[in-house]
Amino acid sequence: MAPTPVLLAVLLACWCSGCASVSSVASCEEHGGLPDSRCTPGVVRVGVSLARICGYGYSSSVRPPESYTEALKLSQMRAYGFAGSPREYEEDHLVALSIGGAPSDPANLWPEPRSGLYDAERKDQLETWAARMACAHRIPLGALQREMAKDWVALYRQAAAPR
User: Fold this and answer.
1) pTM above threshold 0.90
2) Cα separations (Å) of 45 from 36, 40, 80, 105?
3) Cβ(32)–Cβ(123) under 8 Å?
4) CA distances from 62 to 80, 100, 120 (A)
5) What phi, psi does 109 have (nearest 5°)?
6) Tell me: the pLDDT tens digits for 61-86?
7) Helices (DSSP H) in 56-118: which residue ranges?
């Protein structure tokens, strides 16, 4: 028995819960290092424990293949209206893998500029800091995930502030 169009739609939605986020929005806008929340709201991987996240090699074990992220980056660059070379952007997880971000969900990935005040390098620094804070139980994992999804630049400024 062949699947019905409704069943196919449901299966696609389950497979890719964030796919509609970019495709249903006519255009996306980057704002000072932040992705458009309509296109890239950030998504957390359901059911992953802090112990698993903090285990050796977690991020590399769940990172999607470059063949997937490069194709997605090109599509999202068009949605964001980014001109220039794909090398000028890093397809990055808004909620970092190191704190339980969803690895392959397009709603958690966006073409992050490699230049500018709040670029991919600063985001990478924040991801390292956030993982250390979560794994040391200094900041609750859920709080880090929410803040990174909402405004990673503000979280970066907070992390860089003198203690």
Assistant:
1) no
2) 20, 15, 24, 9
3) no
4) 26, 10, 20
5) -125, 145
6) 999 999 999 999 999 999 999 989 99
7) 58-62, 66-80
